[in-house]
């Protein structure tokens, strides 16, 4: 049995090498498509990884308990009151929890002597943040100083507008929930390197400073970010549903699941007829939904491009197989005459095609992985418009072994399937007709 | 010559025959080429159409062909808005008259429109304000002794309404305590509300209604924060010049802003999208989706969401219903739904729970019978709009403007880009942006002389106001002080923005508050005429330039910048694509993506075609050898094979391009419906009507010819090397 297989492989291999040129061309095409598949997938994965990595520390947890507090029916603030009690419920309901942090949410004008910008002001308790410090690369100042009240962390890109340095004072101005303009003065204590789009409009101040800006009491925060253990992240939707039920059982009013970022919900919430607190459980994908559409777009484009390419390659393979079968009709006849079954012929051609597929896709995969590694090593800076898509100012292509293997498997399967029909036709040849065939 | 021609004829003949002889190869190669040409034609047509749509929307609505702004600006100009709502940080162009004259002298410039773009929060009046002014009118009538029985009843009803509002407010104050730092919640405020809500207060109300009303207006109304907020982006401009230069602009409702008056025009799209009663807007959208896109509520999840929201958010309608209207609504809805339910909220909720079967019916019932009783737009034409905007230096400036009407651009009615910017007069814009207007200057002068302050030049006053570096500290005393130096106000007294602002810039702020006197002064300002000359000569942020020949944009940009240098103006000119920021560049990026994809596809196709041709050639070794043996030159063989490939390329390429063109024009007639907001945006409207251009077809043909020619080279070269002997030796 085993030796049979070995012979089969030998024959297939010999046929391939005999038609070296043809095999080479086809192989190059298949390899190129594989490499492309791997690169494009690597790009989506890269964007996704950058997003989950940076965004889940900067602006959302894997799961968030946020919500709105409405003083009057027509106006809402993105606030969770008595958040410690909410956190207790979450702690009970989510055993997968790695750690939880609370963040204040605000939108304000940040004014320096020479410029200003509007942006999201995040209230943060730096001493309670395990991951935040690791994600940010501080270029000047000290992030620990963010523990003192009246301080602020900015990103490099924001300096263009504000023209400040560590130690300078700037003013934050916002409207409180009562429609009153209020300001606080803060001192710049740290400046971090840009990390994609989020660093364009986010700044960080101590939670207490944000509360002072909005005149909130100490029990109020913007949202509780729940970070799950790495391997539980994929179960986020189920955990979110469970958390929602638990919060309801604990007597909280919980909003219906709505896969949008919290700041897109104001309009809806303002129009609903209730006052007081309602909680909203969201996943990181919800909070980033305004960015993930680029990912969907990229995936769509990748799929479209690959379908077209695969169609072309399949045409090429079928063409080659037709001709190979025509050329080898006599060989097939002889083999059949000396006792090879139809299945054997089918198997012979399929195996040939599969071998071709396997070698080329493997070569393509290696090539793709090398190109990806090269691109990452070059650390290419991308223009602003592209940043909108990549969520990062650097090109990052993430190629994982699993992606390599699945690409190789998928495309090998496709080549084998492309050969199925021609091989089937070859197997149906009668030994007599095949042997008397000319040319 | 003649010999060459006849040789060519023979070659072509043989080539054609060969195509038919090896059909399989022809079909495969042809198929790939067909598909490639098809893809290029369809892809480029689509992108061109999107590009054209966007360019029409952007150039035709606000950007013009070229935008000019100060080269000293920190940010790049983004007409359509960047990542956030705020306008770009631009340096001002001090004297528009000079800029305009300089630009007008540049060849190819047709018109120059002054502009400034910013975004702001706009509050439409709160319920309590409206209720109080209604009650005040009625009370006056009553006091004057000519109140009819109807008025008397209305007076009592109005009092009842106010008491209800106060009860709600009491609840709100309690909520406030949960949220806010207790130090910032004033006890006096809560006490005032409690007093106003008490039965004693209302028992004695009729004794001196005006006095009681004053208490309500001064102490209670400011605490009500239920005003609806709109986020608007607007362009400040010279309304006349704007309408003249963007000649597709037309007024939909109301009138344009009269010459020399301050005023606001809503972009119709924004007006519908943001100001219209949401329920009605959602009904419109469902109707539009069903009519234009042929989709159904049952199939479309977005429409299902609209239906759900309509049925759950009936509060807005309920708030508008007074007692008599409630009765009418109840009766109509009960009849329609055949229900005995008496709660109008529940009836409305049931009424809006529409499905595909009853939607049309209910849509018409809503607009024919219910809508006339409702205020469909939160801000009506003729209302005053309070616009609060951050000035450059960060304090909140507010201006009251009458809404004169709405406008849109012919052909761009449905374009979100073209309908994103509303319009106001430049004089009000300058004020909101923190520039000193002539009026304000006069006021300041008056105040200064009253305060015995030293004279300040306009130049320095502005510098002081913005806190720029030219400040000479000794020229001006503390009163005009940049707000950044204001103390942090954790506990502002009595929650009024004017307090903060007043400290920063005393005297130059319009009186705020809802008191009667303050309102009088503000209204007076909006009625005051300004000198049209002010529009022409003052500060602007940017200017739109409209050209006679849009094709010459790059040349004109050079000319403008050169003219600016000659005139000593720091002018920077950019194309509309650049001015529209991310949006304009998006199409360029899509183009790059498409071309890359096409390139990759053709490279792979090249390899596959090449492979097919090589195999076909190898099969024909005998034939080729024979041809060589009977005297065919190598060049003959080479041209024969290349012509063969080119013929396949041309035939199948033309077929593919043709089918693509037909498809595009068929789709162009029907239009592709925009599935959701994102598509709506890229299609510049509800449907994309792609058009086929000659360049698309020619381009596609050129590409496929190139590919087929290239892919034939290697096999032809192989064939060329075939010797007659090889052919004869060949076994089969």
Outline:
By secondary structure, chain A is an alpha+beta fold.
Low-confidence stretches of chain A: none
Average residue-wise pLDDT of chain A? 84
Helix content of chain A: 40-55%
Shape of chain B: elongated
Tally of individual helices of chain B: 30
Mean pLDDT rating of chain B: 78
Describe the sheet with the most strands of chain A: 11 strands, mixed
Keywords:
heterodimer; A: 439 residues; alpha+beta; 54% helix; 19% strand; elongated; B: 732 residues; 6-stranded mixed barrel; 12 strands; 59% helix
Secondary structure blueprint with pairings:
The complex is a heterodimer of chains A (439) and B (732).
Chain A: H1 2-18, H2 20-58, E1 63-72, E2 75-77, H3 83-93, E3 97-111, E4 116-124, H4 132-135, E5 138-141, E6 151-155, H5 156-162, E7 169-175, E8 181-192, H6 198-201, E9 202-206, H7 207-214, E10 223-228, H8 236-249, H9 266-271, E11 276-283, H10 284-287, H11 289-327, H12 329-337, H13 342-378, H14 384-390, H15 401-427, H16 431-435
Parallel strand pairs in A: 4-9, 6-8
Antiparallel strand pairs in A: 1-2, 1-10, 1-11, 3-4, 3-7, 3-10, 5-8, 7-8
Helix pairs in contact in A: 1-13, 2-11, 2-13, 2-15, 3-8, 11-12, 11-15, 13-15
Chain B: H1 2-21, H2 23-63, E1 66-70, H3 96-104, E2 109-123, H4 127-144, H5 149-179, H6 187-197, H7 199-203, H8 209-220, E3 229-237, H9 239-245, E4 249-254, E5 264-267, H10 268-275, H11 278-292, H12 301-312, H13 315-320, H14 323-337, H15 344-352, H16 359-370, E6 384-390, E7 396-409, E8 421-425, H17 426-433, H18 438-451, H19 458-466, H20 497-504, H21 516-527, H22 532-537, E9 542-547, H23 553-567, E10 571-575, H24 576-579, H25 581-619, H26 621-629, H27 634-670, E11 672-673, H28 677-682, E12 687-688, H29 694-720, H30 724-729
Parallel strand pairs in B: 3-8, 5-7
Antiparallel strand pairs in B: 1-9, 1-10, 2-3, 2-6, 2-9, 4-7, 5-8, 6-7, 11-12
Helix pairs in contact in B: 1-27, 2-25, 2-27, 2-29, 4-5, 4-8, 5-6, 11-12, 11-16, 12-15, 14-15, 25-29, 27-29
